[in-house]
Amino acid sequence: MTTSSLPLRGASRAIPDTLAPITRKLNNSVAQDLNAKVDVNGEDPHQLALDWMKAEGFVKWGLPRSPATCTAPAPVPDICQGPLRDASS
């Protein structure tokens, strides 16, 4: 028996359950469009992915890419080196 044929249990089961709604929406057409925006238009892949996930309702807000732009709502510990501040301020 290989590890890929073993049944998933507990926390391991949460991974495919969490990713299933995303993989249903991220079809080939969407992936090609997103890839073109990165490869052709030079858009930031991390920001593009976050924007897509926000638009699809998978996330409500995203973590900043650098401490200088840290706007995550509290309480989210250890995501930036400075104090957290509200995105509305």
Summarize the SSE layout with pairings:
Elements: H1 11-25, H2 28-39, H3 45-55
Question: Can you put this structure into words, describing what you see?
Answer:
The protein has helices at residues 11-25, 28-39, 45-55. With 89 residues, it is mainly α. The longest helix has 15 residues, at 11-25. It is elongated.
Which structural traits does this protein have?
89 residues, mainly alpha, disordered C terminus, 3 helices
Give a short overview.
The chain is an all-alpha fold and about 90 residues long. It is built from three helices and no strands.
On the 0 to 100 scale, the average pLDDT is 73
Strand percentage: under 5%
Main beta sheet strand tally, sense and closure: none
Portion in helices: 40-55%
Structural class: mainly alpha
- Poorly predicted residue ranges: 74-89
The H-and-E topology, N to C, reads as HHH
> C-alpha Rg, in Å?
17 Å
Distance between the termini: 56 Å
Instruction: Using the alpha-carbon principal axes, give the shape.
Output: elongated
Number of strands: 0
**H/I helix tally:** 3
